[in-house]
Design brief:
277 residues, alpha/beta, 8-stranded mixed β-sheet
């Protein structure tokens, strides 16, 4: 689940196709109410967004917090070009954001340049998350709040049981882990932030849990999750992690779950908040 800042050597699981870029916008909107519940940037005026990707979260930040100017950084110029197009189509945001190609482990900013930071689905994709957080801390002023939202992929549950989907999901996580990422980093955010010198560290478990109480949202989430999984299919097949038959079986199961009257979808992730002193 990513709009991530990544090194040139690091294989980004989802790719940079127009289809994937559109998925990131859909993902941001689908998860907005869950991610942004309890995020408060009151008093923040210069926000650093690390791994801004196609600008999907940037738009939400600017819409929800009208006093913000957001500086979005990403290593991928392809993603930044998409962000410029997406945000440029919203003239009411003009003058409120800056997009810059940058390595999150070596940010091109002076110390104390910003008074807030936002990272979402980023650290799961970088080989050295501690270095990223150290750089974020360096460029923030004392008292600046930081919100970090990250995956905890071991939490995923789909009912009825779907064996091809489960095999695919394990291969998806293995590929990310073997490539230097961490699909379970959400549970480690507290330790990472404390070790990085942040203070007042707190974490909140956030969930997508859909059953018969919200059948429409359940169906939408399962359909979206299929898109997310398929975004990595070509890489997983090429790496020998899954077979085309497994991919086809996963697609078949996801369609069956979408239409099952008693299906359950569950996924939990972690959001951390910390302050720079």
């Amino acid at each position: 689940m990513s709009e991530a800042n990544r090194s040139c050597e690091f294989p980004y699981l989802h790719g940079f196709s127009p289809t994937e870029q559109a998925r990131l916008v859909k993902q941001a909107r689908l998860a907005e109410s869950t991610i942004f519940r309890n995020i408060d940037y009151t008093g923040v005026t210069r926000l650093l967004e690390v791994g801004c990707g196609v600008g999907a979260q940037t738009e939400i930040l600017l819409r929800r917090f009208p006093d913000l100017h957001v500086t979005g950084v990403d290593l991928s110029q392809v993603q930044l070009d998409a962000a410029a197009r997406n945000l440029g189509a919203m003239p009411w945001l003009a003058g409120r954001y800056t997009l810059q190609q940058a390595d999150a482990t070596d940010l091109p900013y002076e110390a104390r340049s910003f008074d807030g930071a936002f990272l979402c689905w980023v650290l799961e994709h970088v080989p050295t998350p501690a270095r990223v957080l150290a750089e974020v801390r360096r460029v923030l002023r004392p008292g600046s709040p930081v919100y970090v939202t990250e995956v905890m992929n071991s939490s995923f549950l789909l009912d009825p049981y779907s064996p091809n989907t489960w095999r695919y999901w394990m291969a998806f996580n293995d590929f990310q882990y073997d490539s230097g990422g961490d699909p379970f980093i959400g549970a480690k955010l507290g330790n990472l932030l404390l070790a990085g010198g942040f203070h007042d560290v707190s974490t909140e478990i956030k969930t997508f849990h859909f059953d018969n109480r919200e059948p429409g949202r359940r169906k939408s989430m399962v359909a979206f999750w299929e898109e997310l999984l398929l975004s990595a299919a070509d890489q997983l097949i090429q790496a020998g992690k899954v077979t085309p038959d497994t991919v086809e079986g996963m697609r078949r199961e996801m369609h069956q779950v979408q239409n099952d009257p008693n299906a359950v979808f569950f996924y939990a992730f972690v959001q951390a908040r910390a302050v720079v002193y």
